Amino acid sequence: MNCKTCAIMSGFGGAGAFSDGKYNITNNFGGTLYEYIGKETAIELMNYVDEINVKFGGEGTKMYSTSGTHIKKLCMQNKLNLLDASVRHLGTDINYVVLENLYAKLKDTVEFRFNCHVDDVEAIDGGYRVITKDGVDECKKCIVSVGRSGSKWMEKVCENLDITTKSNRVDIGVRVELPAVIFSHLTDELYESKIVYRTEKFEDKVRTFCMNPNGIVVNENTNGIVTVNGHSYEDPAKQTENTNFALLVEKHFSEPFKDSNGYGESIARLSNMLGGGVLVQRFGDLIRGRRSTPARIAESFLTPTLSAEPGDLSLVLPKRILDGIIEMIYALDKIAPGTANDDTLLYGVEVKFYNMEVKLDEHLETKHKGLYVIGDGSGVTHSLSHASASGVFVAREIAEEV
Ligand SMILES: Cc1cc2nc3c(=O)[nH]c(=O)nc-3n(C[C@H](O)[C@H](O)[C@H](O)COP(=O)(O)OP(=O)(O)OC[C@H]3O[C@@H](n4cnc5c(N)ncnc54)[C@H](O)[C@@H]3O)c2cc1C
Predict the structure, then answer these.
(1) Do 283 and 205 have their domain in common?
(2) What is the pLDDT of residues 233-263, one digit of tens each?
(3) Would you say residue 397 lies in a domain?
């Protein structure tokens, strides 16, 4: 906490710069872009961006697909639903190369201003005024693309420009780490499997998220609150013997509560209060109702890839969420025996914050003509593929008009 910023969420490449570079081509998750531009256009644009990724450094990477896999049937037989998708895994290392190559290509034709926070966007006669510490720029068309790190800023801008927003969802859970061999039959074929489970007790939806075969678990610092995340490298020399993925429980709120992200932050703060950061617990300790200790972690057959404070996640996560996670671990154990082993590690908490949704039309344009919002900052997308597709969509719309 309080460490110097590692810019994991900001700067050139945004949150994507140090991401795992899993580029999912699907309308089944990663955002709801298709609701605005149609399913076919969304997939066409995601494929187009994939071609660019391949051309600019990703040519040696692999595209995985769920099509025709026997794992779908195995999941269904065990009350699990495997979502259809194709995914290219660039990996954190190749992802970085792609960004470098894209920058080299663009730098002579696009004016980049780094370390230049946009303080405000104002509507003026016939266009927009963009205010930064360097001065004021005026334009007829303005595309806002501030990602998750700009969510609070976006909210303020929408308020000032009287643009409607809504926010009612947060996903809360843990990051699971286990020996890579336990999931290898899934990860070798699919790389990432997005599996959804409906709990028997509460009929809540729990899903796997951000699977990192042979990867590492990392801290994520959002405005001083430390949560957990994961990634992996394409380079075999940097790979570990563990696989990690998140198990997240969807939490939707109804009126009058509006601050779903605040709720998620409060839970993350609790783990930070108890552990000074992220907590880690063996599944066996959680089930037996006792905290994990450094000695119990050291004795286990699994070496953690993140140094986190051994503790008790049941003191942090609400019962309903914890029950959902435990149920899902037992369900996954049926398709990947060993998932529910005592030594499986759970890091907490992982929170998936959703930007509030900005009211946009089918052009991704706000009620102000010429003001567009794309990517995760719009609340419409939550992934690399949907975010980049939304950018190409608006660029093409404007190019056509011009
Ligand atoms: C660790 C990690 C791993 C991830 N792994 C994956 C993955 O494998 N696959 C996947 O699909 N997604 C992944 N994601 C999510 C993915 O990175 C985002 O969905 C994607 O980057 C969204 O793109 P964006 O352009 O909308 O926003 P961002 O990438 O967040 O970019 C927004 C940019 O706006 C800038 N900004 C914000 N506010 C202002 C302001 N006021 N003035 C000027 N600039 C501003 C920020 O500095 C940033 O550069 C991961 C995220 C993280 C953090």
Answers:
(1) yes
(2) 878 899 999 999 999 999 988 888 878 888 9
(3) yes
Asked if residue 119 and residue 239 are part of one domain, the reply reads: no
Claim to verify: residue 334 and residue 197 sit in the same structural domain:
yes
Residue 324's domain spans which residues?
A: 169-353
**Ligand 1 centroid – CA 147 distance (Å):** 5
Task: Return the pLDDT at 17.
Answer: 83
Rounded to 10 deg, the angle between the 384-401 and 39-53 helix axes is 100
194 lines ligand 1 (CB under 6 A): no
Classify residue 77: in a domain, yes or no.
no
98 falls within a domain = no
Mean pLDDT of 69-97: 93
pTM for the predicted model, two decimal places:
0.86
- Look at the chain and report how many structural domains it folds into: 2
Contact 340, 333 (CB under 8 A): yes
The kind and range of the H/E element at 352 are strand 345-353
Determine, yes or no, domain membership for 81.
no
Q: Are both 157 and 198 inside the same structural domain? A: no
> Can you give the CATH number for the domain in which 143 is found?
3.50.50.60
Could you tell me if 345 and 282 are in contact, meaning their C-beta atoms sit under 8 angstroms apart?
A: yes
Torsion from C-alpha of 68, 70, 75, 76, nearest 10 degrees: 70
Coil vs helix vs strand at 289: coil
Q: For the residues 327-338, what does the mean pLDDT come to?
A: 98
Q: State the Cα–Cα distance between residues 239 and 234, nearest whole angstrom.
A: 8
Q: Does 206 share its domain with 347?
A: yes
302 has pLDDT over 70: yes
The answer on 311 and 329 residing in a single domain is: yes
Contact 197, 80 (CB under 8 A): yes
Ligand 1: nearest atom to the Cα of 119: 41
pLDDT, tens digit, 9 for 90 and up, residues 50-67: 999 999 999 999 999 999
195 and 134 housed in the same domain: no
For tokens 């149920």, the residue is 327
Cα 77 to middle of ligand 1, angstroms: 36
Q: Which of the listed residues 355, 384, 385 should we mutate to test ligand 1's pocket, taking the one with most ligand atoms within 8 A of CB? A: 384
Between the CA of 294 and the centroid of ligand 1 the distance, in Å, is 35
pLDDT of residue 2: 57
Same domain, 261 and 207: yes
Q: Give 150 Cα–ligand 1 centroid separation in angstroms.
A: 9
